[in-house]
Design brief:
By secondary structure, the protein is mainly beta. Helix content is 10%, strand content 48%. The chain has 2 helices and 48 strands. The strands form 11 sheets. It has a 6-stranded antiparallel beta sheet, with no helix packed on it. The longest helix has 31 residues.
Length: 608
């Protein structure tokens, strides 16, 4: 019996050892097996996988990371042995946050999976742990500015709507940006009520991506931006720019103009054009502007810049001095003055290039006779600056000693040319000189020819006047009347070509006629002033041929007889003691008669 009991006990102990060994082997085997565990990252309510999450699995102590990965477009599978683990979402996808950031779970020896939630646990079907994510909002900044300023523009009422039209937010702008938290999606911001002076603004469409990026269309291109900016466009007003010649009513062509906007001491070019026969129309916003001329039309000076401004209500003003003056008809006018050109005024004596001082003349406009310049000439040419047009140089007073010069009409062209006009014909002068040519004023000079032994004018003399250069000025025969000639101031020589019968040639006279009409005579190397502007040539008679002197006989003396050797005729005369003039003449008469009788007698005797 006892042996039987021992057998039974031994059998039972062996069975227990066998079972224990089997269980121990099974447990060891189970601990060595790895099971597939599936980790899924999705958007809550959507079965599609959500990429971009960073997961890690830690041991039961939640300290040691056993493995890590980033979620993709498909669930992620890991192999784990049985045991307790912690699943942690380290980083959520952009724009999302997990409902639970970590999960504790148990892997059993049979590969089953249970989630531990506090003191309880729940079975996980298909060994798949799902992390649900919900969308989260991003801070989006919305700016509202004016097109001419980078600072925020207060007072504008804006609306923010979804693309579907659902209104999300409304506000009135201040001096800082509006910050709104938005979920990823498409939106539109619109100006519900703007400010005076600003044009209606189109709505701005933008999109917030799941990673928080803001993108919008700019000039047809999608660009990522840091914030959404509403730019309020200023109201544009019509402004006309007129270009005219001063004093004229028609538009001036071919000027090159530019309009610049002035902001913060910076000038920005708005428009540039060449003027035509019509004013230029511009559309401008409020602000201050400068109108400048880059190139003037031919023949015109560059105009001064014009400052003008447009107010918020479209009122146009122009700056004159320190004042802003309202402009009518929305027209800014810029005036050009004709460009002045050089003209040289000269006053000379004919055929000489020496300037004459003391000429008084005026320059007149041809059409209006308006005096432009009063000029008194000096020993240098006078330079003037004149506008293009027709002018007359008219002499008021000639230089001393000169005749008044004829007026000269001339034309100054827009290209700076100068033409001397005669009727409708113009001769261009390349030296731009308008010259008044003077002739010396003539003075009357009286020439007298007299005899030294007679009173009155002596006729039949031939006189000649010779200029200093040797040319003959005049020549004439004297009469019983003195000769008057009109001569220009100069140096002359009066000479006698032929003397009257019985007179010797007179000595030549060198004289000079001065500008004031006075006459100076050269005598012994000196110039002596003659009174009364009169030159008198005095003629001396030729000396007479006297007979040979007759010896005076002594008282009671007998004259030696004159004997002709051939005829032996003797003549003798008794000379009275005392003789007066009459006796002398009687004596010579008797002598002449006797000699004549003697000759006759000799001839008779010879003929026999």
């Amino acid at each position: 019996m006892k042996i039987r009991v021992n057998k039974i006990v031994g059998f039972v102990m062996a069975f227990i050892v066998m079972i224990s060994s089997f269980m121990l082997v099974s447990k060891v085997q189970a601990q060595q097996n790895e099971y597939d565990i599936i980790i899924s990252s999705v958007v809550k309510g959507n079965a599609e996988e959500l990429a971009g999450a960073r997961f890690s699995i830690k041991d039961s102590t939640n300290t040691n990371i056993l493995m890590s990965w980033d979620s993709g477009n498909a669930p992620h599978t890991v192999k784990l042995k049985s045991g307790k683990y912690v699943l942690v979402e380290e980083i959520a996808p952009n724009g999302y946050q997990p409902e639970v950031s970590q999960r504790e779970f148990l892997v059993f020896d049979d590969g089953s999976l249970r989630l531990i939630e506090g003191a309880s646990s729940s079975f996980v079907p298909n060994s798949t742990i799902v992390f649900n994510h919900i969308l989260v909002g991003f801070d989006v900044k919305i700016s509202n500015i004016s097109e001419d300023n980078t600072e925020e523009l207060p007072g504008v009422h804006l609306d923010l709507s979804k693309q579907s039209g659902e209104l999300i937010h409304s506000w009135t702008t201040t001096d800082h940006m509006e910050v709104i938290r938005l979920l990823p999606g498409q939106y539109r911001v619109t100006v519900q009520r703007g400010l005076q002076g600003y044009a209606p603004t189109d709505g701005i469409d933008f999109e917030v991506s799941i990673n928080g990026e803001i993108s919008r269309s700019i000039n047809g291109e999608i660009k990522v931006v840091d914030f959404v900016q509403v730019v309020n466009e200023l109201m544009k007003y019509d402004v006309f720019i007129s270009k005219m010649e001063k004093g004229q009513n028609s538009e001036l062509r071919n000027a090159k103009l530019v309009v610049k906007k002035i902001s913060n001491n910076t000038e920005t070019e708005i428009a540039q054009w060449i003027t035509t026969k019509h004013p230029q129309k511009l559309k401008l916003t409020k602000g201050e502007y400068k109108l400048e001329e880059i190139e003037a039309p031919i023949g015109y000076e560059l105009a001064q810049p014009v400052l003008f401004r447009l107010n918020i209500d479209g009122l146009l003003e122009k700056k004159e001095g320190d004042q802003w003056v309202v402009v009518n008809n929305s027209t800014i006018q810029m005036f050009n003055h004709l460009k002045k050109h050089l003209v040289v005024i000269s006053s000379v004596e004919e055929d000489k290039d020496i300037e004459l001082s003391g000429t008084q003349l005026v320059i007149k406009e041809k059409n209006t006779s308006q005096i432009i310049e009063n000029i008194t000439t000096t020993d240098t040419k006078k330079q003037l600056m004149l506008f293009p047009g027709r002018y007359i140089a008219e002499e008021i007073q000639a230089p001393f000693g000169y005749e008044k010069a004829s007026s000269v009409e001339f034309l100054v062209g827009p290209d700076s040319s100068v033409h001397i006009l005669s009727g409708n014909v113009g001769l261009e002068v390349t030296d731009k000189m308008v010259q008044l040519v003077h002739n010396l004023k003539k003075h009357d000079v009286l020439f007298s020819s007299i005899a030294q032994d007679k009173n009155g004018e002596l006729p039949s003399a031939k006189l000649r006047i010779i200029r200093q250069d040797g040319s003959i000025q005049d020549e004439w025969d004297t009469t019983e009347t003195a000769k008057i000639l009109s001569l220009e101031p100069n140096q002359y020589t009066l000479e006698e070509v032929k003397a009257p019968n019985g007179y010797s040639l007179a000595k030549a006279m060198v004289f000079r006629l001065n500008l004031d009409g006075s006459i100076e005579l050269q005598e012994n190397g000196q110039w002596n002033l003659l009174p009364n502007a009169q030159l008198q040539m005095i003629h001396k008679p030729k000396p007479k041929m006297n007979p040979a002197p007759v010896p005076q006989p002594k008282p009671n003396a007998q004259v030696k007889p004159i004997v002709n050797e051939k005829t032996k005729i003797t003549s003798s005369f008794h000379i009275p003691k005392t003789m007066d003039t009459t006796d002398v003449l009687i004596w010579f008469t008797l002598l002449y008669t006797s000699l004549l009788a003697l000759v006759v007698l000799l001839n008779i005797q010879k003929s026999k």
